[in-house]
Structures are given as C-alpha cells and as structure tokens.
Amino acid sequence: MASPEQQPRQQPAPPFAAQNPTAQGPPGALPAARSGAPPPAARPAFPGSPPAPPFVRAPTATAAPSAAPPFGGPPGAVSQQRPPFGGPPGAAPQQALPFGGSPGVASRAPTPFGGPPSAASQAPPLFGGSPGLASQAPPTLGGPPTATAQSSLPFGGPPVAAASQAPPFGGPHGAASHTPPFGGPTAVASQPAPPMFGGSRPAFPGQPGPMTAASPQSMPLNFGAPQQPPPPFTGQTQFGAPRPGGQLPFPAQSAPAQQLPFMGPPRANAPAFGPPSWQTQGAGSGAMQPPMGMPGIPGMQQNTLGPPGTPTMPYSPHAGTQVSTPSKIDPTQIPRPMTEGSVIIYETRQGGQATIPPAASSEFIVKDTGNCSPRLMRCTVNQIPCTGDLLTTSGMPLALMVQPFALPHPSEEPIQLVDFGEMGPIRCSRCKAYINPFMKFVDQGRHFICNLCGFRNDTPREYMCNLGPDGRRRDADDRPELCRGTVEFVATKEFLVRDPMPAVYFFLIDVSMNSIQTGATAAACSAIAQAISDLPEGPRTMVGIATFDSAIHFYSLKRAQQQPLMLIVPDVQDVYTPLQTDLILPVSECRENLEQLLESIPNMFENNRVADSAFGAAMKAGFLAIKSTGGKLLVFQSVLPSLGVGSLSAREAEGRANVTTGDKEAHKLLQPVDNTLKTMALEFAEYQVCVDLFLTTQAYVDIASISVVPQTTGGRVYYYYPFSALSDPAKLFNDLRWNISRPQGFEAVMRVRCSQGLQVQDYFGNFCKRVPTDIDLPAIDSDKTVMVTFKHDDKLQENTECGFQCALLYTTVYGQRRIRVINLSLSCTSLLSSLFRYADLETQFASFLKQAANGIPASPLPRTRDEATNTCINILQSYRKHCASVTSSGQLILPEALKLLPLYTLALVKSVGLRTDGRLDERSYWMSLVSSISVVLAVPLVFPRLIPIHDLTTRADDDSLIPSPLMLNSENVQEDGVYLLENGEDGLIYVGNMVNPATLVQIFGVSSLAALPVQLVLEQFDNELSRKVNEVVNEIRRQRCSYLRLRLCRRGEPSGDFFRSFLIEDKAPGVFSYVEFLVHVHRQIQSKMT
Amino acid sequence: MSAADPSAAAPAAAADPDGPDAVRLTWNAWPRSKVEASRCVVPLAATVSPARVPDRSTAAPPPLPYLPLRCKPPCSALLNPFARVDFAAKIWICPLCFSRNHFPPHYAAISESNVPAELFPQCSTVEYIVGGAPGAPGAAGAPPPPVFLFVIDTCVIEEELEYVKMAMRKAVALLPEHALVGLVTFGTQVHLHELGFSDLSKIYVFRGTKEISKEQILDQLGLTGAGRSGFPKIPQQPGGPQVNGMHPAATAGVNRFLLPVSECECTLSTLLDELQSDQWPVEAGNRAMRCTGVALSVAAGLLGACMPGTGARIIALLGGPCTEGPGMIVSKDLSEPVRSHKDLDKDAAPHFQKAVKFYDGLAKQLVSQGHVLDVFASALDQVGLAEMKVAIERTGGLVVLSESFGHSVFKDSFKRIFEGGEQSLGLSFNGTIEINCSKDIKVQGIIGPCTSLEKKGAVCADTVVGQGNTTAWKMCGLDRNTSLTVFFDVSPSERSSQPGHQNPHLYIQFVTSYQHPEGQMRIRVTTICRKWVDGSTNTEELVEGFDQETAAVVLARYISLKMEMEEEFDATRWLDRSLIRLCSRFGDYRKDDPSSFSLHSNFSLFPQFMFNLRRSQFVQVFNNSPDETAYFRMLLNRESVTNSVAMIQPSLISFSFDSPPSPVFLDVASIAADRILLLDAYFSVVIFHGMTIAQWRNMGYQNQPEHEQFAQLLQSPHEEAQMIIKGRFPVPRLVVCDQHGSQARFLLAKLNPSATYNSAHDVAPGSDIIFTDDVSFQVFCEHLQRLAVQS
C-alpha cells in the first residue's frame, strides 16, 4: 500500500466540502458550479457531488488523480490512492492518531445528502457549510456524550469533556491528548500491538482470547428481590468470575474510570446507537464496573437512584418467588443504549485470530488485516457454533449481513484491485473459491489448501512463491489477495458473457391528471433535470426518458432533429418500443434536449385529463427500451396503476368494505395481488434492468404489489406520502441524486461460499434468484444489504476457523467488470457461553427484523408479533438456562452482548410494520425498506433517535454535532420544547404547545404556533439556533445516507399521535411499556424454566 | 370478312361516345325471352358512368334545387321524362311499373306549358341538389370538407423518400384550405401523427405485427368518448367547418389528428422535412419490415372514429410489400420471392388468402364508414395490390402502379387528384346507386368499383355476376370516369309473356346519390328507354342495336371476373367459343363455306377486339405479376368504354410527310422507316420513330431551319401524346423509342404479328418483323370463318 505519509496532507475542509472556497482538493470535488445561483427549484443539496468514479482506485499512488469521493468527500489528496468511496487519502496519518484524528475525520464525511431545501439565494452550503465546522468534531455515530445538564447517569457514558476542553476530535493532537472516555488513547496510539479499540469499548471486553469466564457479560435484572444482599453488584458476585476486562487486556476499561470517574453529572439518558456499552452503575460504585447486575431492585436503588418524581412502574412480584413487598422497577435503571464515545480503530484480525468487530453503529476505522471490514460483511455471532444443535439451543440466528458496497470510513484504506492478467484470479479448482488469506500454502508453496472445501490445489506456476519460516508465503504481505479480507479482481473473459454494460438510466414519469395536479410531475422533472449532472461522466452513460398516463410517451432526443419527437405507445396491454435505437442516448449528446424536454413536460401535460396510469405497461416499455443493454429504470409514479398490464385495484378499500374477510385475511393485502408483476420483474432481472420506484402519491397505490418489481431487480421504493409539492421536491431530488451517484455496480452476480460443515440456507434482500447458489443483482449499491442464512450440514472442528467468502461479480458504472471478494474467517466454538459472549446484537436484530418483515404478509399480525417476542424470549431463556447459574429466580438475567435485545424487540413489535393501525401502504413500504436495510440502519428504523433541538444553542458545546438522544418516552418530551425524532427515513419535528415564540421564530421563522406551516420546509435563518438545527439535520442526513422526510407534529393532532407512537418505552393501548415488557419477558422465561 | 376500317377503332375525341346519359348497352334492343338472350352470346349489360360530367356542348340543365318525386313503393322509381303525365288530374304514371302517382301540392302549378325540368324530354339525366350534409336532405349548411389521410411508407431508400416528400409538398400546396389532412407513416411500426399538438412532434406508435381492431385503435387513441380522451387543449371552434356533420364525440379526435390544411401546413412541412426512412434495421438477406396492413387499419380506424359517414380518402403511398402483421404477402426473407400467378394457380402462395381476407374485412369497414382507399404503389417488385384489390375496388379507390415515386406515372397522377378545375378528376364521395327497371328485367350484379348494399328486391336475378343480389350499391369514392358494368337478365313472367298488349319499350333507371366535389349531396337520375325485340327471328333489330365496343369491354370485364373467381377457367377457349357462336348467330354466310362469311358493320370490329383481348394482359396474365394484373383489371373495370377499348386494343396513329396523321392498322406492317407511330395502349403511350426518322433526328436535321417541317413532324406525335396523357388518370407511361431499339418492344408486343421470322414474305426495307410464334390476326380470322360456318 502506498505510504500515505508521503501524500499531501489533507486539508481540513468543511466536512462536506461543499463550498470550500479554497481549492485545495481536486477541483472535481468541489461542486462549485452549484453554489452560484441554483435554479429556483434547485436546492443546493448534495453539495460535493464529485464527478469522479467512486470505484476508481489507483493501482499506484499516482495513477488516479483526484478520484473524488462520490459524496463530496474531502477534497485533497491528488494522486493518492483513494478509498473506494471517497475516503480521504490520508489513512495513514490518521492511523497514527488514536482515534482518527480530526483532519481526516473532519473532512472525511462522505456527504450523502446536501443541505435542506433552502432559499436559493443562500450562499453558504447548507450542509456543514459554516467554516467553523471545518475543524469541528466529525460526525459520529454514538458520539461522545454531550454536556446535557440533566445527565443523571453517573456512569452512563464517556465522561463529558468540560466545556472548555477541546472537543475530543477537534484536532489531531487534541484527539491524541484528549482523554477519551474510558480509554487510554495515548497508549493505544503509541502501541499498535494492544487492542486498538478495546480501551474505549467496554462492551467488548471479551476479546477472543483465553477467556474462560462463562458470562461476565451477562446482566441480571433483578425483580423485586429485596432479600438479595448485594444488589447492585450481584453480577460480579453471582458469577464470581474475575472481570477479565478489569485485569488483562483492557486496562483502559477501568483505568479511565478511575481517573475520570464521573466527570459529568449522572446522565439519565445515555443515548447511543452504539455498541452495547450500557453499564449499570451504582452511586458509589466508584471504580467498580459491574458488567452485569442490573440494579433493578427498587428497594435497593431507592436511596441511590430513582430521581424523585420519576414515575416507577408498579409491579406485582411473581407470586411464590417474590416476597410480598410491592416492588418496582426503576425505569431509569433498565438497559438502554448508550452513546459510544470515540472513533475506534479496528483491526480485523490480530494474532492470527478474528477480532470482534465494533458495534455497527459506532464510528470506527477498519484496518483490514485479513478479515473483511465488518461494514461489508458481519455475522450474527462472532464465533461459529460447531454443531447445529448448539446453534439451535442458543436460539440465535446464524446469518451474515453482506453489504458489499458499504461506504467505508474515509480514513480507511481503499479496497485494492488485483489484476491477474490473462490467468484470471486464482481459484480453488473444486469449489471455485477465490484465493484469500486463509488458503494455506503447503509443500514449499507448490500446493494450496482451500479454506472452504479443503481441497488441495496445485499452485499455478506463475503464482509460485516460496514459503517463509512462518509457513506463510514470502510475498503474502505484498499481495493484497493474501493479506486482505477484501480485494477486487479484474474479471477476465471467462466472466464476461458480453461486453460490460454501459451505465443506462431510463426515467419514467407519471403524467396522469393526479400527478400533474399535485405537482408530482413537475417535481420529478425538476429532480431529474438537476440530477443529470450527477450521472457518471463519460461516453458510456446513457439516458432515456418516457412519460405515461393511459399510454406511454417516449421521446427521441436525437440531436439532429429540430425538436424532440414524442412517440406514443398506446397499447398498454401488450407494449412494445417505438424505436429500435435512439430511445437511449449518451447523456453528452442529448443533455440540452433532455433538459429542455424536462422543462416542458409539466406544461405539455398541463391540461391532461387522463386519470388512468398504465404503470406496469410503462415499466415494461421502459424495459424494452433498455433491454439490449440493461440499466436502471427510475419510475416516478403517483397513482394506483389502473390500466394495462399489471394494473391493480384499490384492494385497501375493498378490504375495508368487507370487514369479515378484511379482518381474517388482513395480511393477504400485504401480499402481491398476483404474479403479473413478479413475472415481469423476473424478466427485467434477466436482462439486467433494475427498477427504482419513486411514489409521489396522495392515495393507496398498493405498494405490496408493486414493490415486488424493485425488490426483484435490486432496486428500492421511495415513498412520499402524502406528496407535498412544497416540501417533498427537495427530498425527491436528493433521493434521486443519491440513487444515481452513490457507489454502485450493475449486472452483478453474488455468491456466498462457506466452509464445509455449513451451507448457505437462504438469501434475503432485493435480488433475483434463478439458481439456488447465486443471486442476480441487476444493480447493487452502497445501501443494499443481503442477508445470508446458514445451516449446519456437518460438525465443525473446534479450534479451527470457519470461512465465509462472498464473491460479487459486477460491472462498474464505467464499464469495468470486477469481482469483489469479501472474506471472513471466524473461529469455531462448542461453548454456548462463547456464542452469547460473541453475539452481535445489531446484526442479530437486523436478522430478526428482516425475518419479521418477511413473515408479515404470510401470517396474521398478532402471530408475527408473538414470534418476534418469542425469539427474544427463547434466546434469553437459553442463556438463563445454560449459561447463568443464577440463584435467584427473581432475576432477569441478560447476556451482556444482548442486553438490549428486549428493548429492540419491543421496538420491533411496536414498529410501523407490525402495528395494527397503520395504513397498508405504509406497512408495505416498511417491509420493502427492511428487505434490503443495512445493519446500521436496522436499529434506528424501529428505535429512532429523539433529539431536543430547542436548546441546541444553550447546551454546553460538546464534541458531537448531534446532541445525545433522549430515551423514547413521554417524560422526555416537554411541551415547551422542540424535538426531532428520526429513524433514518422520517424526521418528525415535534413542537410542544408551550414553546417559546422566540424559538419558533428562530427555527421556523414564524412567531406563533398557529402560523406553523403544515408542510414543513426547513429553512436556515440567520441565527445560531437555526444554523444548529440545520447542522444537526444535515449531519443526520449524512449519517443515514437519507434525506429525511421532515414533518411537523403537534400535540392534539394526528401528527402528534403519530409522533408519540414512536415513543416506544411508553405504554400504548394494547402494547407493553418497556418495563412491562421486561416483566413479561421475565415471566415467560420463568414459566419456561419451570 | 374484310379487314375492318381502322379509323373506326380510334375513338372520336370530339363526339361523346357515351352520350348525355353516359350509359352504353351491349344491346340496344333486347330480346324478350331468356333463351333468346342467351343466344345473343354477349350478355345484356350496361356500362354506366354515374358521376360523369356531361360535355359542355350538351345543354344539360343545371342541378335542380329540390327533392325528386318517387313512385310509390316497391317501385320507388323517380319521376322522369318517360312518365306519362295527366296534367289535369295532376297524376303521373310511372313508366316502369305503370303505377299512378299524384303530384304533391307544390307541383300544383304543373301544366303542359309549365313542366318541371325533370320532365323535359332531353333531361333523361337530371341532378338534384338535396343538401349539404349526408342524411339530412335539404338541410342547409356548409358542406363537409374533403378529408385526406395520407399513409406513407417509410421503408424506402432515401431517394424515394425524397420523391415522396416532394410529391406530398406539392399535394399539400394544392389542397383547398379547408380540407382536413391527417398523416400516418409506417415501416416496421405505424406512426400516427397528432398534427394538432403544437409543443413537439407527437406520434402514436402502433406495432406492425399485431392485428388491431377498430375498437382497440379508438380506445388507444382516446377517441372513445370520456375517460381516455386527453388533451382537450385545442379549443373547439364553434361553427367551424370541421364540426359540421360530424360525429359529436369525434370532434376532439378531429382536432387532434385531422386538421384543416390552413392550420397544419407548417406542422406538416416540418414533419415532412424531418421524416426519415424507417429506423428499424433491416438484416442482410431480408426485406424491410413493413406493416402496410396495420397502417391501413389504423388509418381506417381513425377515420371511422372521426369521420363516419363523411367522405374521406385514405391515400396510401406504398414502396414495397407488406412483410409483417395482417395483410402480409411475403415473409421478410429475401430468398422467398413474392407470389406469382403460377404460385397462385398452384396454391403455393401461403399468405395470399389470409391477406385477401384481411383486406376484405378492411373493405367492409371502409364501406360501412363511407371511406375510400387509394393506393399509389411505386416499387420495382410487387407491393401486394393483388391482395388489396378488394379493398380498393370495393371502396372505389384510385390506384396507380409505377416503378418509382420519381416516375412521372406517380408524380403526375398523384398531383392530378388534388388539382381542381378543368383537370379535376371530380372526386366524389359516399355514392350509392340504385337501379330500377321495367318488370321482366332483373339485375344480376355489377362489375366495377362498388359494393353491394345487400338490399334485396324484386329486380334481383337468380344468377349473380360480381356484386349482386341487391338493388343498391355503395360507391365510397367515384369520379367523372368511374364506370360500372351492370349485368341484366330477362325473365319474363307468365303474364307478361302473353302476346299482345305489350309495352314495346323497356326502361332502366339509375339513381345515384353522392357527395359532389363541391360538398353538396346530389341525386342523379338517369332513365333510359330501349326497345324490346319480339320473337326469335328478328335478328335484324338485334344486330342494329349491337354496340361492339361496349360488348368487347363487357366481355373483357366479364372474363376477368371469371378468371379470378373460377379455378381452371380457360379464358382463351371461352372467348373463342363465344366469338364463334356470335359469328354463327349473327354472321352472313352459307353453311360450310368460309369464304361466304361476312359480318354486319356493327360487328365488324368485334373479332379484332377479341383477337387483341386474347393476347392482352387481361387474358395472358402469365406475362405479368399478380399485382400488375390486379392493377390492369381494376382500371379496366372502372374506366369508360372508350378508355377500356384502348386497353384491349390500342390505337395506332401514323405520322409521316406523306399524309396527315391517320390511324393505321395495329399491325407490324404499319411500321415504316419514314414514319413515326404513336401507340396508345392506355397504360403506356409509345412514340416510335422509324429507322430513317431516327437517323435524321440523330443527325439533327430538326434543328436546321430548312427542315422545320421535319421538326414539326417530330413534334406532333409528342403533342398528340401529351393530349392523351393530359386527359387520363392514371397518367400513362410515355415511351419514346426508335425502330430496332430496345424500347421498341412496347410497340411490337401490341402489334398483330402479320410478319414474323417464320413468314415467307420478303421483308420490305424499313418494315419490321416480330419474333413470335403467335398466330396473326389473318390466321385467326381464317379459323374463325371456318368454324363459324360449320354446321
């Protein structure tokens, strides 16, 4: 790898580099063009749209100049090896810094989304445009705690830096010298050998190593057991295991705690989407870090915890086992996620063993030392059970979440490209696995043994190399395919059935009456017109466009012609293309014509009275137009498809009308109505056509049926309901822009291989499966995740490793055929306790989420909810039964790694998809979203983040852009506050009824509640608070790679109820509160135990 | 029999051979019995030109601005000069059925000295103007505009397409301002241009492979009323011409697809400028994909939706065969040749019947809508006229076959249909013709450009010829030249066969109603009166009433029909037999003495006609493609007798220094080195320079002032040819050739081979011989005489 130190240092740029006036970076990275005067409709969003290929990696340090990141990554680093997706070049300099010191981080931010819609005249970039931000802390996931005054958790999170203190990541040196919450950062920085991340991650004390303690990570929740003497620290005593974390590899864990025991006031809310770093604490626990021992016993906690006035949940103790004293669970003491403090540097393997990846939601920088980055692929358990029985006993799933194009941290080294020339990549001749670091070379390198199937292969002569004394090939460290978990191979002819396809984008716009009148057509046209410039540059980028109502209107944009030609295909039962060629043209040849056309389409159809929409036929026609090449079909649809092939009926209304069947068969309405669209989608997929749907609608459109198409073709559904011509165009544009500019590949085929003993059971995600082993992805992008489940077909040997290899053959947007090979090798275990210790909560939860979504259409809702709850109960019960030698049956004991499982499960049960009261389309959309959701976004989708925004200016300046989230219960929502609740999709801004009008003016520009607009357009006004609010929103957009759909919610309105339905800790009619749920789980386990 | 006088064969241009009524009968005196009629050999038939504009010389009365009087049903004949009128009783007696009818009150002023025009004796043909719109006789109002829907084949090479564009531009310029125009272009797919959409060129595209019903077309174009009809952007023009007389729901469609020339001239010219050859690729070894059938379906469907019942023309410009979808005549594979007569005979044309069936359906649709299909086919190979014939002929469409859109046959003909004034073809629409006749006369049917309206009546004969079994026929399109051949039957009833008290006259009345080119609806009534001939012996009268030109033409039409309808029909033999029978019946001879044979002058030319008919393209089809045959026959069936005779037996005029231009025998012997011959074979006009003339011309004598006479000699056949060409539609092909030149075959093929390479005669210098084994007219006549006198 190129030595980054030699590279020009990256300029500390505003995180989003949007309008950095200093052209330090490659000019391409600065979308200066947009900064001037965007068209009125144009929102200066997505600032740093780089023209450069996201995938370009220079084989040498100088080859790929200014491969700018797709997201307006940091400018700079000309002629440097680029991280795949625009990470900053300066990986190494940052690596020198313990926590990815600020310059890199600050400038790193891949900006998926630009600013919010704002006045066109607004000059500064909306998204982190303020220069002051340049040096500010990088956006973090679960960033360090903020200095919230009311923090009441003594031990909740990393200590809050004093206001005067430098922000943790303020600068490289600051970061280095700054004392991270729990870690010994300096030590880490200076010592590469010790675990780089352990210090700050109490959640993972269990480094796979000589750990024998069965369950130091478990967390018993005590229910009303006052007779248990040492309540807060029961865990320790009960399990008697010496805290390994405290002793051996994790000195940092306790050390900082001793140094900075509780710098900040105790915090009640430790918001985090981070690792399960939740810690219980006792008031006087001091240096003690009870890893478990939930002080849930009210009696004991009364004196130390339980702030007065905090409502406690009455609880009737379990008869017989409990004493009669009415016991309470202190809601402040139950497990909740905590903010992760700092950026972690994570080496994927150490000492010949896989390391435990940091929580998906935490911020970390991966050093690929043999295993792939956990962003690309992570497993539900980090040690593989040797037998199927063991797995079954645990109740846990065995699955991989594969996100092959996941955005890397900007500081990460890019995935290296390996070209084997004519020979092609070395593969196992039996199972066709690709060469990887786990293939063992033997016999002086003449043979190698496949780590997956065990076959002994001859080493090709060209590839021979002697082995060193350590048994490794001498060139292992020089060859990426032998030392990196993830590499890309240049595909040779044998992988090509035809020339790699060009990047083809075909836009289909609904122009039926409704669409015109609601402004959806105009919004779509404007979005496309603005997004054209973000298409991959080059002669191979082709575009085409068609509109449709009851007929399909194609446009021939050939330059030679005076005006565009409108070709109407009126037969919507049996469609065809009106031209053989010219329907798609290189974008360079037709840009002007296209822009002109897009401008005139809304006028042209201004008086259209055709209410029908031949959506299916239009898709089919669009497909036919690009059938010869394949490509992306971007469909903007506004009404229920009512005509032509694949037309649908308003099933929702029918279901309502017929109450008896409606109740019994309600879930059937979430299934596709028939096979027409599925069949169509399979054909699309066969010809490498991916469909993305933008539903800008005011009514039911039967997403259950139409989402089949994007799901089968590797696309997704975007849903704007109810579409607002005022507030939605900005999101539409940003979604479209991200859709076409994010890292992606075409005509992909993916296969996951695994070691003998396991076999792939199934794949879940948005793809088309024609043969059992492979999945076809007409398109794959950085947001898409595929879940792969496994089952045992044999025993695995203990003390061996189980390998997984995901191979993705795809075509880049510039027409190169590549094979991305992602390897993960995990040790096998026959200990159930290890399974629990190394369980990956977020990955498991993502798996549950997907399984639940999968099950929704198939069975009645209550059953689906029960299944989700039972999954949770079974796992906890297994742990209780086999791993926790608990003496008290009154305790709910949670494995440390999975202690948030009940909370997340409750969130899942209360989620949109599993709610009874939601609209059908809303639920269908949720399901379609879940099918390809990544691990990082899975939790927030059901367990949103709640942020107070009225006091952004008053809170102590802390290191995080985003204030610590509040717990999701109503006590945290005050009527004099303004709150943002976001789940990666929606951003609900709750405005209390007693908000200070000054705040309203500052944020919304109106002086009274009554004047608040119904349709929210978040503008930036010239005041500190507004700026902060916009910063926060933009940061969230960036983190989620999603331009939130902002909505105003008010108490006493349906919107307020909607907002409150996300406060999942609250009790709602028919559903448990969090405390009740814990009780419920506990009881269930108890009843199972007896 | 001596050689007939050639001058008689040349049509007398000045006189109107068809007379003021434009009706010619094979026999002007009719036998009273079926048996007698059959002994006449030549069928009892009449050729009628229902829209013929009478010569200026004849004092035809102006059209009458009122409704005609009708006899009481079932006769329903119209009042005519042959009616007996009782002025006192205000009663008229119908000459056909002898019913008595009272004059209506508004005829109260009638008297001997004050008779309405329809009773003037010279007004055997009279026209009434009955209204501006169909179905509303007498209703005043602006007449509906003519409608032209162009259907253009784009599967042609650039050069041809340029010719098409040029022709189209000329045509658009010639169209009257208020004429409605629509445009369909097609190749692999059909493009229907929405001319009323101003933002950009808007085209509806229909696939070529799929048969599409009229309802589907309407539905897909959004012309079926509410729901799918978008774009009501163009404001209605109240009182505008196009709203008048139209289907109310269709006006939106009219505004979109059919626009007055004045409004869409600009759009059209842009469209034509940008029109390209079909963009779909043609694979090597394949024909272009051409979906003529669907294109015509779409055009018909559009007109059906927008203009039902109003006169409209689909003008199709075809550059090749239909290779896909309905109406396909040949596969796209070039290794498969287009069907020939041989294939048709052997039933080896797999697409033929299907295509004919398709066009038959199209014809029915067009007829029910009252619309016309015109086909201008310009291609070196066939385009499928043989299959389309049914649709063209039934709708009364025009047809022109040429080799290229650049050829004058196409160019000038195409221009002609849009020209007004003297040159006008007098294109009329929506005609119906009814026939009323005296009792004992039945109508077998009509050959010609019309369709049966299936209106059964007493006058329907048992045997059917052509479009029969009806008393009314539809002619969606008709023009001045349109001519129909009506076949009659004599079937005396018991009562009428009784001798004594028989009416010596027979009456036949043709009632044609049609939309005049000027827009009004007119009814034209022609009543003719002819004699009955009593008894079988009265050959004299029959002979006197024989019209040999008409007879030849009727036989040609009849035999063409039989060749199409009857399998294995031996036309030559049938003709020979008929001629022999006719000669036996009407010739003067002594039995078994050929030399005694002679014919009345009324028959003198008939054997010659038959001789040439036997050799003509109508009987010797194997020399031509099925398309050509269909083309020739369609024109034969629709042209006037005079023109049709020219098709059967071309005229030949000699130009020389010795004598003024004069007709000469259609014989190889007429060729001389110092003559210029002008052959008018209807489809082609040949100017043939004798050897010497050609040499002089090549030496440039005509340019020398002292040889001005020679220049004139050279010029005069050209002038004559231009005269012929000017008055003819389609424009004939002009061939200018020299003796012994390759083009001379156009002349030689038509000449009587009296001198062949076999003939013993010494070849006179300057004369010519024909390389053929065909018998000469002389030999033919010898045989005829011999066989005619056989007992």
How many individual β-strands of chain A? 34
User: Could you give the count of β-strands of chain B?
Assistant: 29
Beta strand % of chain A: 15-25%
CATH topology of one domain in chain A: Rossmann fold
Outline of chain A, from the CA principal axes? Answer: globular
Mean pLDDT of chain B: 85
CATH topology heading of one domain in chain B: Rossmann fold
Compute the separation of the termini of chain B in Å.
Answer: 18 Å
Number of helices of chain B: 21
Outline of chain B: globular
* Structural category of chain B: alpha+beta
Any low-confidence stretches of chain B, pLDDT <50, length ≥5? 1-14, 133-140, 226-250
The major sheet of chain B is characterized as: 8 strands, mixed
By CATH reckoning, the class of one domain in chain A would read: Alpha Beta
Q: Any low-confidence stretches of chain A, pLDDT <50, length ≥5? A: 1-112, 114-216, 224-327
Oligomer designation: heterodimer
User: Could you report the average pLDDT of chain A, rounded to the nearest whole number?
Assistant: 74
The tally of helices of chain A reads 31
Describe the structure.
The complex is a heterodimer of chains A (1090) and B (791). With 1090 residues, chain A is an alpha+beta fold. Among the domains of chain A are: 369-500 and 744-833, Immunoglobulin-like, CATH 2.60.40; 504-659 and 669-741, von Willebrand factor, type A domain (Rossmann fold), CATH 3.40.50.410; 840-942, Sec23/Sec24 helical domain (Four Helix Bundle (Hemerythrin (Met), subunit A), Up-down Bundle); 944-1063, Severin. In chain A, strands 16, 17, 18, 19, 20, 21, 22 and 23 form an eight-stranded mixed beta sheet that branches. In chain A, strands 9, 11, 15, 24, 26, 28 and 29 form a seven-stranded mixed beta sheet that branches. A four-stranded antiparallel beta sheet of chain A has the order 8-10-27-25, with helices on one face. In chain A, helix 23 packs antiparallel against helix 24 (861-882), helix 23 (841-855) packs across helix 27 (935-942) and helix 24 packs antiparallel against helix 25. Chain A is globular. By secondary structure, chain B is α+β, with helices and mostly antiparallel strands. Among the domains of chain B are: 70-120, SH3 type barrels (Roll), CATH 2.30.30.380; 152-222 and 252-417, von Willebrand factor, type A domain (Rossmann fold), CATH 3.40.50.410; 626-790, Severin, CATH 3.40.20. In chain B, strands 8, 9, 10, 11, 12, 13, 14 and 15 form an eight-stranded mixed beta sheet that branches. The longest helix of chain B is centred in the C-terminal third of the chain and has 19 residues, at 708-726. Chain B starts with 5 loop residues before the first helix and ends with a helix. Chain A binds chain B through residues 549-551, 553-554, 561-572, 574, 576, 578-582, 600, 603-604, 606-612, and chain B through 188-189, 191, 194, 197, 199-207, 210, 212, 216, 220-222, 227-233, 270, 274, 279-281.
